[in-house]
Amino acid sequence: SFFFLRWSLTLSPRLECSGMISAHCSLHFPVAGITGVFSLLTAVALARLATRTRKPSYYYLLALTASDIITQVVIVFAGFLLQGAVLARQVPQAVVRTANILEFAANHASVWIAILLTVDRYSALCHPLHHRAASSPGRTRRAIAAVLSAALLTGIPFYWWLDVWRDADPPSTMDEVLKWAHCLTVYFIPCGVFLVTNSAIIHRLRRTGQPRVGKSTAILLGVTTLFTLLWAPRVSVMLYHMYVAPVHRDWRVHLALDVANMVAMLNTAVNFGLYCFVSKTFRATVRQVIHDAYLPCTLASQPKGMAVKLVMEPSGLPKGAEV
């Protein structure tokens, strides 16, 4: 999950002067709020499942969701709320560039953890004996830690990332290198890995004649397919902006970038729907998380005696039955 909302929230002078700022912000606040709620709910549910089952796939999905949450916090809070709503002025450039490092590092981590999940599913289906011998929660956590460390290192060069509103015309060599590095790191190379491994998984399933696809494999195929589709517009607009029409010269490119970023932002919310659709266990865990969050609020709103009675005598138990 994959957002880079700062591009969308940095308004061009044309938009600010034409009165489109209110519509612009009203489009992004609901999207940011929806994806944030779904990300937190997904993270809590996956944390429970990972602790309960100790399956590598849940650890990978949890790390992926956590990376998305970090990206959202950096972009929405540091890039918009703090700079625009709280300070109402430009923050120091060093702060913005440091936020760039965290933003790109979290984004790289999210994508490459999805690759770990893909490789894990490929190993489980195509080399089951090796997977059973090598798979363990400790090994999974070490793999995730290695990816997070590598993602932080690969985020450092993006300290020099240039906002699309300040791009040179034509773009400098550094700007082209960073943008192509970003496209390769988070889209073209991962999509190549997804294509190869998913094709091998599907071929294996057809050859063995399995009538049904496992839940973990179904989630993997759904996550990678959705990522490929939802991120394609953003990458296309970025390359178009770099070589054809800069954003500050053509408001249509700005609008296309807005739409592409919002589509990419919805990735997390769509993943939540995918998990619920595929996994009955995930649906049950989400219901339990919501119930556990709602129950204290319900008890707090009840009179003191009624709250005690609700705790001591849960509904649905026969009278006199032991709790």
Automatic annotation (TrEMBL):
<feature type="transmembrane region" description="Helical">
    <location>
        <begin position="143"/>
        <end position="162"/>
    </location>
</feature>
<keyword id="KW-0297">G-protein coupled receptor</keyword>
<feature type="domain" description="G-protein coupled receptors family 1 profile">
    <location>
        <begin position="38"/>
        <end position="275"/>
    </location>
</feature>
<keyword id="KW-0807">Transducer</keyword>
<feature type="transmembrane region" description="Helical">
    <location>
        <begin position="58"/>
        <end position="81"/>
    </location>
</feature>
<feature type="transmembrane region" description="Helical">
    <location>
        <begin position="218"/>
        <end position="243"/>
    </location>
</feature>
<keyword id="KW-0675">Receptor</keyword>
<protein>
    <recommendedName>
        <fullName>G-protein coupled receptors family 1 profile domain-containing protein</fullName>
    </recommendedName>
</protein>
<comment type="similarity">
    <text>Belongs to the G-protein coupled receptor 1 family.</text>
</comment>
<keyword id="KW-1003">Cell membrane</keyword>
<feature type="transmembrane region" description="Helical">
    <location>
        <begin position="101"/>
        <end position="122"/>
    </location>
</feature>
<keyword id="KW-0812">Transmembrane</keyword>
<dbReference type="InterPro" id="IPR000276">
    <property type="entry name" value="GPCR_Rhodpsn"/>
</dbReference>
<dbReference type="GO" id="GO:0005886">
    <property type="term" value="C:plasma membrane"/>
</dbReference>
<dbReference type="GO" id="GO:0004930">
    <property type="term" value="F:G protein-coupled receptor activity"/>
</dbReference>
<dbReference type="InterPro" id="IPR017452">
    <property type="entry name" value="GPCR_Rhodpsn_7TM"/>
</dbReference>
<feature type="transmembrane region" description="Helical">
    <location>
        <begin position="20"/>
        <end position="46"/>
    </location>
</feature>
<dbReference type="InterPro" id="IPR052477">
    <property type="entry name" value="Orphan_GPCR1"/>
</dbReference>
<dbReference type="Pfam" id="PF00001">
    <property type="entry name" value="7tm_1"/>
</dbReference>
<keyword id="KW-0472">Membrane</keyword>
<feature type="transmembrane region" description="Helical">
    <location>
        <begin position="177"/>
        <end position="197"/>
    </location>
</feature>
<feature type="transmembrane region" description="Helical">
    <location>
        <begin position="255"/>
        <end position="278"/>
    </location>
</feature>
<keyword id="KW-1133">Transmembrane helix</keyword>
